[in-house]
Design goal:
Length: 315
């Protein structure tokens, strides 16, 4: 029996967006991708196929910190991480700190069928060569200028901007950039994918949460993709914690509420999107803004202006 598909995506979390024009441009980008992913699901695509397409589209949008538009690390290089988890099979796969590829999520998808399912830097680069993936420069002018400014300031900022548009954030401290997609397909299966360019300006070799179960996790019951400060997400083991609570019988709403209450009490800076196998969609944040949009089977909605003081929302 087929079920009503659902999708929720995010483009990062951080400080308040400045200006309605900037907010509307982010909204247009997110809504366009949600509509495309939802149409793919209606056509019969599997959860993993839909997640792959959604992540690929977000990685290709230079506004977000993943794929094209990724931030630069302290040495001026781009290193990206991504992961995919198929809830039906319980398989997690990912790449860590890979360079010179257009869509890191495609490497994560290939590794779903590999006995070695998480590869870092040199191993991920070798996989890209084996697959004959063309070399790609993900650098954009805005990210380069951002890095040059921080170099002049001796890298005083802790991380780069959440979106690659100067008018959208009050300063380059508005970071926490990641992209993510969580879907429920028409067959009742859940999958989640997450991709990032990192914090920006970080120490060489730093590993984000995006290619860990802490930041991306799914089961046959629920899926979660996280965004925010990676170290905070790792400390909370947020994605896995939420999914395990749902596996153990807690509702998604209650699992999100408990997990974000704990994160808030621990002074974490993070956000997450989630959905479960019954079709409930949820989102949460301890940051000021969560750049998320969803399709609940009837209409598209988003969280760009969600600021009611609550830690979570759901539909």
């Amino acid at each position: 029996m087929r079920v009503q598909p659902k999708v929720i995506i995010h483009g990062g979390a951080g400080s308040s967006l400045q200006g309605k024009g900037g907010l509307e441009s982010v909204r247009h980008s997110l809504h366009t991708i949600v509509e495309a992913v939802y149409s793919l699901l209606l056509s019969g695509a599997t959860a993993s196929e839909a997640v792959l397409q959604g992540c690929r589209m977000l990685e290709d949008n230079p506004r977000f910190n993943a794929g094209t538009g990724s931030v630069l690390q302290s040495d001026g290089q781009i290193r990206m991480s991504a992961s995919l988890m198929n809830g039906a099979s319980g398989r997690f796969s990912g790449v860590i700190n890979v360079s010179r590829v257009k869509n890191p999520i495609e490497l994560a998808q290939f590794l779903q069928s590999s006995p070695d399912r998480v590869l870092s830097d040199y191993g991920a680069a070798e996989l890209a060569r084996e697959l004959q993936i063309p070399s790609y420069n993900a650098l954009t002018d805005l990210r380069l200028q951002e890095w040059i400014q921080e170099r002049q300031d001796n890298f005083q900022s802790t991380m780069a901007g959440v979106v690659a548009e100067p008018e959208l954030a009050p300063s380059s401290n508005a970071g926490r950039g990641t992209i993510g997609v969580v879907v429920l397909d028409t067959y009742g299966c859940v999958a989640a994918g997450t991709s990032t360019g990192g914090k920006g300006f970080e120490r060489i070799g730093r590993v984000s949460d995006s290619a860990m179960p802490a930041g991306n996790y799914a089961s046959s019951y629920a899926g979660v993709s996280c965004t925010g400060i990676g170290e905070d997400i790792i400390d909370e083991c947020l994605a896995a914690k939420i999914v395990v609570r749902v596996n153990d019988g807690m509702s998604l709403k209650d699992a999100m509420q408990r997990s974000f209450t704990e994160a808030s009490q621990n002074h974490r800076d993070l956000g997450a999107i989630a959905l479960d196998a019954t079709g409930v969609i949820s989102w949460g944040k301890t940051s000021q803004v969560l750049l998320a949009a969803y399709h609940n089977g009837e209409a598209i909605g988003d969280t760009l202006e969600w600021n009611d003081g609550q830690l979570i929302g759901y539909c």
